[in-house]
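Same chain as my last thread, 97 residues:
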Amino acid sequence: MSNGPNTYARCNVDSAAASVQASDTPDNPVYLTLTDLGGAFQQGLFYAADAMKREMLAVALAAISTGKNVYVDADPPDQSDQRPVPAQCYTIGLILD
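reply #2:
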């Protein structure tokens, strides 16, 4: 995965959660923890783009419940050992194969 949007990665959805508190993301964020199947990152922390966060949460939960992978368009995740700052996820799509 390279820098910036329009960088697609095939990922496993490790977790998905909605929150009412956040200091480093928009109000009421949806958080996604993703692992790139190509090995670029493991359990990267993302937040869903505000305009589509409900739909992204639905796709992430569908991926978890069916065991399917997803394609994502996102900023590169913070891989520091400290408390990571979530990266923004712009698109998530369920892979049906």
